[in-house]
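Sharing a chain and its predicted structure for anyone who wants a worked example. Both blocks are below, sequence first, C-alpha cells second.
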Amino acid sequence: MSDTILVTGANRGIGLEITRALLDDGHRVLAACREPNKATALAGLSTGHRLDLLTLDVGDAASVATLPRALAGLTIDALVNNAGRMRRESGVDGIDHDDWARTFAINSQAPLRVATALKPNLLAATNARVMTISSRMGSIALATTGSIAYRSSKAAVNMTMRCLANEWADAEITVCVAHPGWVRSDMGGDDADLSTRESARDLVDLLQRLQPTDSGRFLNHDGSVIPW
C-alpha cells in the first residue's frame, strides 16, 4: 500500500537515504529541506510524480507556519522528523551556550512544531504515524560524558514526543522516537557501524510496521526497545 510521507532534513545523510528507501517501496515522499534548489542528490531521486520537494527550515517558526496552507487537504500518513544538528564539545567547559540554544530549537522544539502543524493532515490518515529520529545519546539511563548540548536536546525531544503520544492517543496518531544506530555520517563519523543506507532501510522498515501499541516508545532502528 502506498503512503504519503513527509521527511524533514531530506537532502543529505540519513534523510536522503530514508527518502530513497521510501521511494523504492513505492511511497510518495514530501522531501523537505531548507534549500531544495541546491539539493541535487535529492532531486536525482525523482521517480515519476512520487517525489515532491518542499522548502522548510524546521528551526524557523515562520517557515513551519507555511505548512498548513501549502499542504491543506492533503492526507499525510506519516511524518519522519529527521532534521537535526550536532556540535561536539569535550565537556562542560567547551559548551557554547548560544549554540546549545540553537541545538534545542532544531532538535527538541522543531519536531513538535512540525508535528502539530501537520496534525490536520495526519488526522485524515487511517494509520497516522510520527517518528522522530532521536539518539540513544539522549537516554538518561545510558548517559556517559561529552556532547552535552546534543545529549540534552535528544533527551528533551524524547520527553516531548512521549507527552505528544499521550496527548494524541485519542486521535489515534502513533508517536515514537527512534535511534538510527551508530551511523557513518557527518554526525557519526567514519568509524561507525552502519552506513546511512543500512540505517535508513531499518528505519523505513520500522516506520512501515509501527502500530498504535508502539506509541510513546523509544525504539532502536531494529525495533528493540531502548531504556529512557
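Comments welcome. The first helix runs from residue 13 to 24.
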